[in-house]
Amino acid sequence: MIEIRRTRAARRTAGDGAGLRWIPGFALLSLVWGASFALIKIAVDAGVAPMWVALWRCFFGAVALGAVCAVQRLAPPRDRATWAHALVVALLFNAVPFALFSYGETRVSSVLAGVWNATTPLTTLVFVLALMPGERPTVRRVLGLLTGFGGVLVVLGVWHGLRGGTISGDLACLGATTCYGAAFAYTRRYFSGRGDAAPALALTQVLCATVELALVTPLLAGPPSWPGVRAGVALVVLGAAGTGLAYIINLSVIRAAGTTVAASVTYVTPVWSTLLGAWLLGEPPGWNTLVGGALVLAGVVVSR
Questions:
Q1: DSSP the chain
Q2: According to a count of CB atoms within 10 Å of the terminal CB, is the N or C end of the chain lower?
């Protein structure tokens, strides 16, 4: 009996040590995704059309992921069902929300866009409750959703009325996080459980998004133009790091720590987006952005 207890204790100790290995990846992921809002702002302020920001982001992400797969000698999936699900995931996770966030940042600050991104766990919960038969609404989850919704109203500043200058940007950012919510639920049910390596799955997803955007962007936004060195570098970093390598890190964190821990990265990204927006772009947040963002995060914590 004593030996069995010692063995179990040793296993728990080893497991705890292994369980902490996801923390550096988690911290790096929060920084990369938090910085993406400042990079988007740099690009759209330089005159890059939102659709082209989304397309270049996916293109450079696909290039980075392709290089990783080439080095690791990973082939893309051959299963047609995987590619079919990847088309849906790419639409919900990349093509549509990237375009919406880029458009939103032509109307609102990168700080505010980062705060809107923090609503992702709440929109995810709504879709999970609606689409997953085993999930049930509880008092805690309902309270969390109501708290988060209250935070959204504070961020919007509804006591001032719906101001036309920024409301379209706010709604675009909120629409992007709604897409993320649907994407997480769909990915959990149909895509993430497949046995392919993380870089190969990520490459498949981002390639599909690149093709989807390439089919419509020239029609909606016209031909591309050179935005200057600063915006060009921002687009390359946004794609290669924020859309390429970040997806590999994200999948690694999911596999090491679980979906719940991985999704909580959105607790931290608003901190980075606020700091970098204020430092690099001179975007001090208003009091309602800070208070509303805190309520959104509180709603996320309660609901989980």
A1: -HHHHHHHHHHHHHHHHHHGGGHHHHHHHHHHHHHHHHHHHHHHHTT--HHHHHHHHHHHHHHHHHHHHHHHTPPPP--HHHHHHHHHHHIIIIIHHHHHHHHHTTTS-HHHHHHHHTTHHHHHHHHHHHH-TT----HHHHHHHHHHHHHHHHHHTGGG---HHHHHHHHHHHHHHHHHHHHHHHIIIIITTS-S-HHHHHHHHHHHHHHHHHHHHHHHH-S-----HHHHHHHHHIIIIIIIIHHHHHHHHHHHH-HHHHHGGGGTHHHHHHHHHHHHS--PPPHHHHHHHHHHHHHHHHH-
A2: N
